[in-house]
């Protein structure tokens, strides 16, 4: 009899765990379905949010925190990459000038992240959206100023999509 109870308890725990795991996957999938747009592909959203273990227990606001932290990492990587390319001094003057602009744009973006985090935490969503839009614009500006040689396209795309994800999540939060 004790063995039957153990198996029943084990089965109940397994079903409960599966339901919890499915519900957390559902919030990520549902959020990403709502956020997807031409700049922000569904798969990028799911991959980004699901890559953080906190997404398993996060609500919508928690997913916004994850998105902003991902953006922080993304703009730091883009900034370091652009600065590293600029140091190589193998670029024609125009491309070097574009890289210098990108470093300045991404340095500003990195500097804005603490403000975004504070605004988000303080529920000043409109202010956070203003800063996030500026970062999204900066990554697009960095990309579009290059002519033929586009040495940081993947970093710019990552930053653009990351900013778009954070913006889209904020738009879903009931005000």
Nutshell version of this structure?
With 175 residues, this protein is mainly alpha-helical. The chain is 80% helix and 0% strand. It is elongated.
CATH superfamily: Invertase/pectin methylesterase inhibitor family protein
Instruction: Look at the structure and give the CATH class.
Output: Mainly Alpha
Helices, by number, come to 6
SSE pattern, N- to C-terminal: HHHHHH
Q: How does the major sheet shape up?
A: none
- The gross shape turns out to be elongated
CATH architecture: Up-down Bundle
Gap between N and C termini: 54 Å
Structural class estimated from helices and strands = mainly alpha
**Content of β-strand:** under 5%
- Low-confidence spans: 6-24
As an assembly, this protein is single chain
The CATH topology is Butyryl-CoA Dehydrogenase, subunit A, domain 3
Helix content: over 70%
* DSSP summary, beta strand count: 0
Number of domains: 1
What is the typical, i.e. mean, pLDDT? Answer: 89
* C-alpha-based Rg, rounded: 20 Å
Question: Would you write up a description of this structure?
Answer:
The chain is mostly helical. It has helices at residues 2-35, 42-50, 60-87, 93-121, 125-144, 153-172. The chain has one domain: Invertase/pectin methylesterase inhibitor family protein (Butyryl-CoA Dehydrogenase, subunit A, domain 3, Up-down Bundle). It is built from six helices and no strands. Helix 3 (60-87) packs antiparallel against helix 6 and helix 5 (125-144) runs antiparallel to helix 6. It starts with a helix and ends with a helix.
Features:
80% helix, 175 residues, Butyryl-CoA Dehydrogenase, subunit A, domain 3, mainly alpha, 0% strand
């Amino acid at each position: 009899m004790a063995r039957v109870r153990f198996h029943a308890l084990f089965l109940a725990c397994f079903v409960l765990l599966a339901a919890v795991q499915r519900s957390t996957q559902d919030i990520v999938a549902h959020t990403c379905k709502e956020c997807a747009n031409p700049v922000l592909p569904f798969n990028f959203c799911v991959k980004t949010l699901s890559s953080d273990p906190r997404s398993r227990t996060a609500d919508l606001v928690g997913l916004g925190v994850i998105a902003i932290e991902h953006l922080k990492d993304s703009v730091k990587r883009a900034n370091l990459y652009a600065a590293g390319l600029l140091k190589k001094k193998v670029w024609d003057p125009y491309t070097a000038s574009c890289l210098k602009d990108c470093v300045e744009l991404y340095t500003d973006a990195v500097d804005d992240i603490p403000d975004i985090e504070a605004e988000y935490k303080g529920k000043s969503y409109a202010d956070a959206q203003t800063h996030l839009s500026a970062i999204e614009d900066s990554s697009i500006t960095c990309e579009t100023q290059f002519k033929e040689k586009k040495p940081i396209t993947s970093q710019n795309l990552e930053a653009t999509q990351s900013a778009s994800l954070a913006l889209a999540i904020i738009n879903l939060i009931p005000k």
